[in-house]
Specification:
190 residues; alpha/beta; globular; six-stranded parallel sheet; 6 strands
Length: 190
């Protein structure tokens, strides 16, 4: 689900009535990006277990601007896309989100994956040593029909794939991360 800014005043009251557990959102479209405002304005967001942020803040944005994420008491899964500017926040998310089981960097293309991997190496972060961390290319990056198929019980979304990968890392079946792999492709293999 992605909510454009113009409909937020209509959507938020509706969301408050739903037991919302999963949310995919364009961050800048919600109150110009303040998570504490998001948390305070819609009590039902405290039920979120899976949060996918499809855009990101400006370079150098401090954790304090995002620390509201840690206030979601049920948040177990967090995803950012193509995170060049998000690198400093990733370790903080793992450190301060007490129930976080999976942190995903999802890249739209191999080039984005390679750039994110380079940024991880340059940053010297220990992020890749954390078994909860997953980075991959999601071949169907903007295909919301994958989300819909999963919601209807007839498919896998990237969260299922990420959970499987984290389980393998925790079981010692794979130790490499970031590990380049491509999540589901369409019929043409793209």
């Amino acid at each position: 689900m992605i909510f454009p800014l113009l409909v937020m005043k209509i959507i938020l009251p509706l969301l408050e009535r739903l037991p919302l557990q999963r949310l995919a959102v364009s961050w800048k479209d919600i109150y110009s990006g303040s998570l504490p405002k998001l948390h305070d304005s819609c009590a039902k967001f405290t039920q979120l277990t899976h949060l996918e942020i499809r855009d990101w803040r400006e370079p150098g944005d401090p954790w304090t601007g995002w620390s509201g994420i840690a206030r979601f008491p049920r948040l177990t899964h967090l995803c950012f896309h193509d995170v060049e500017t998000m690198m400093p926040l990733l370790g903080c998310a793992l450190k301060f989100c007490p129930h976080l089981k999976v942190l995903v960097i999802s890249c739209a293309r191999r080039l984005h994956f390679d750039l994110a991997q380079r940024d991880l190496e340059i940053s010297g972060t220990e992020l890749t040593a954390d078994a909860r961390f997953v980075m991959f290319v999601w071949a169907r990056y903007f295909y919301d029909d994958d989300w819909e198929a999963y919601a209807r019980g007839s498919g896998e979304d990237f969260w299922v794939v990420a959970d499987r990968h984290v389980a393998k890392r925790q079981a010692g079946e794979t130790t490499v991360s970031p590990e380049y792999f491509i999540c589901p492709t369409d019929e043409n293999g793209s």
